[in-house]
Amino acid sequence: MDNSFKNDEKLYRAVYPPNISSMYWKSDGSVSSAAFADPNGLSVERGYYRKDEDVVSAMQMRFTGSIIRVYVKNCRDIGAEVRYLPSNNSPYHSEIHGSATTPLLSKTQRRYLAEKASIILSSL
Amino acid sequence: MIIARQMDVRANIKKYFDIAYHGEAVVVPRKQDRNVVIISEAEYRLLEQLKRASAYNDLLTDGIGKKGKISVSAKENVKARNKEKLSVIKNLKDDWNGNGAPAFSDELIAKISDLIDELMIQPEIFPTALGTIQLEYDNSGHDHMEIEIGLQDEAEIFIVNYNGKESFENITVSTAAINDRIKDFYG
Asked: Which of B126, B132, B137, B166 to mutate to test the interface with A (most CBs of A within 10 A)?
């Protein structure tokens, strides 16, 4: 794996806090854009073309809450950058940044990703 | 909806997958009524979304508190739901998002609590990792409004209309100013 991402690669995000499952779910069942606000960059796990269930199983080794998914293309469509940043906890760890110089996603970007997000695992 | 025998599906799986993909459910009868239905991923996601919305509404009327869920009194009361959610947000500790998000100050919690008491229409409220609380509204015309409130005297309002047009505005955080925006938003 390197820092190259194709548009159709999936990115998975753990929804915190894991023990409060309904925190970011809206009354219509969609996700609030607030779940995509992080001044340090939005942590995600890159799918690297693994099956959804395999990614979920791997993430559940470290996390018990809900998981949502977007595509790299969704990020690029609104000018966000995806960076591959493997960590001690995960070789798949990546981040979504608002731009080359700004880790925080703009409100426009957060809203767009919230609309595009699919809920892969709901602990609700 | 169509019904297809299991052996037909096995022999023509691509055909039935394409049928399901294009929006028609394929029912496959099996022995002992252990039938299955083949649907598209889009249909599945929609059903899951509806299930979550239904479960969310059940939470509003569930008077029995359960660990990890936000419960309200037996009477369906959106304001009470927001107050309870605010108490959950208040108890979040530093690093609650696993990436350094700060806990929420008592001052901000009190500010939002006062707003919840006075707003003419209750929002949906959500914490952010920026130390702010986001109030959200969605009207029947599919417009969307976010008001992000922190300790500052001013808040930013972000509106996305049904046609995708965006607008931003800064306002002084007060019940009157926010109620004016709510009136404009709902017409």
From this structure: B126
Amino acid occupying residue A19: N
Residue B102 lies in a domain: yes
Residue B50 lies in a domain: no
Kindly report the CATH number assigned to the domain that includes residue B177: 3.90.1150
Same domain, B156 and B89: yes
Q: Tell the residue number behind the tokens 């395999």, with chain if given.
A: A54
Quote ipTM for the complex: 0.92
B176, pLDDT greater than 50:
yes
Please tell me which residue of chain B has the smallest CA distance to A38. Answer: B129
Domain tally, chain A: 1
Full residue range of the structural domain in which residue B24 is found = 2-39
Q: Could you please report the per-residue DSSP string of A3-29?
A: S---TT-EEEEEPSPTT-TTTTB-TTS
Residue B71 domain-assigned (yes or no): no
pLDDT tens-digit map of A73-123 = 999 999 999 999 999 989 999 999 999 999 999 999 999 999 999 988 876
pLDDT of residue A17: 80
Chain A residues in contact with B61 by the CB 8 A cut-off are: none
Minimal-distance CA residue of chain B relative to A19: B68
Q: What is the largest CA-CA distance in chain B?
A: 68
Among positive and negative, which fits the CA dihedral B96, B70, B157, B153? negative
